[in-house]
Amino acid sequence: MKIKKAIIPIAGKGTRFLPATKEIAKEIIPIINVPMIHYIVQEAVEAGIEQIIFVTSSGKFSVEDYFDRNQELEAFLERNNKTKELELIRKIGSMVDVTAVRQKEQLGLGHAVLMAKSMVGDEPFAVLLGDDIVINEKPAIKQLMEVSLAHAGSTVIGVMEVPKEDTAKYGIVRGEFLNDRTLRMNGMVEKPKPEEAPTNLATPGRYILTPEIFEILEKIPRGAGNEYQLTDAINVLCQRKSVYAYKFEGERFDTGNIHGYLDATIDFALKDPETREKFIQSLQHRIKKYGIKI
Ligand code: UTP
């Protein structure tokens, strides 16, 4: 079955980006001039997703607005013969069908996903978290869709290898490898200490889920951090059905924290021919200015 809908939960407070997130949605903070959320939505659209369901909270209107048409701005650009900019703005406004549902209390990722139940209906769907940008020719979520299709429409969780000492920052999966990249999962552990982690395969926020997850999310108690955890629901599902994990291909930037955000900014500035040369000059100048030895 073709996966047409993607849930993108964006209701969190974004405390790691304070003070900016006091007034701006974290998702709108740009990497150079493109908001972080643009890359997430683009990944979904390139994978064939036709409808994005944002799970939002107060102060997140700008994310919905970003993907809407802006007639006033378009008219201004047209009047001033800014053709290239006009084309770009129109393209973003017609990128994909966007809807939003509110999460009135931030009770965790599992709770956020549950808020989109009535909009998803009875079909498999994708979930993408905005904190991780994954760059790859074939979108990471598309890779998971293909694995799901190959396994009778099963649940598939995107995973990546992390250094053993970092397991406490992630949900970590356990299971048996079926081939180089695919595992049949027998569970997940939320943020285990390195010595207790079953593997070093972390879940950076790419999922293909089936509607059965909603029924589980409705029943599970609060878990770690007193929140409703998607991890707990996936664990229940693992007891009932075959659930797979897939080591997707792609370069991943953890833009949910300042260091990962800077790393992505530097990478994108070096990769783009329009910014590369001047950026290298700036870097050389600053390195000299601060007497940094590299
Ligand atoms: P995070 O734990 O990264 O939270 O949530 P956050 O608020 O975005 O950022 P920090 O940690 O305070 O800096 C992971 C994703 O799940 C969403 C967040 O918006 C983020 O995209 N989320 C989390 C919700 O939508 N609702 C929740 O109740 C919790």
Notable characteristics:
about 290 residues, alpha/beta, Spore Coat Polysaccharide Biosynthesis Protein SpsA, Chain A, 2 domains, ten-stranded mixed β-sheet, two-stranded antiparallel sheet, 14 strands, globular, binds uridine 5'-triphosphate
Written description of the protein model:
- The protein is an alpha/beta fold and 294 residues long.
- It has 2 domains: 5-256, Spore Coat Polysaccharide Biosynthesis Protein SpsA, Chain A; 257-294, no CATH class.
- It contains 12 helices and 14 strands.
- The chain has helices at residues 20-23, 36-46, 61-66, 71-79, 83-93, 109-114, 117-120, 140-150, 212-219, 230-240, 258-271, 273-289, and strands at residues 5-9, 30-31, 34-35, 51-56, 97-102, 125-128, 132-135, 155-161, 171-177, 182-190, 201-202, 206-209, 243-247, 251-254.
- Strands 1, 4, 5, 6, 8, 9, 10, 11, 12 and 13 form a 10-stranded mixed β-sheet that branches. A two-stranded antiparallel ribbon has the order 2-3. The chain has a two-stranded antiparallel ribbon with strand order 7-14.
- Strand 9 and strand 10 (182-190) form a beta hairpin.
- The longest helix is centred in the C-terminal third of the chain and has 17 residues, at 273-289.
- Bound molecules: uridine 5'-triphosphate.
- Uridine 5'-triphosphate (UTP) is lined by residues 9-16, 26, 55, 103, 106-109, 111-112, 129-131, 256.
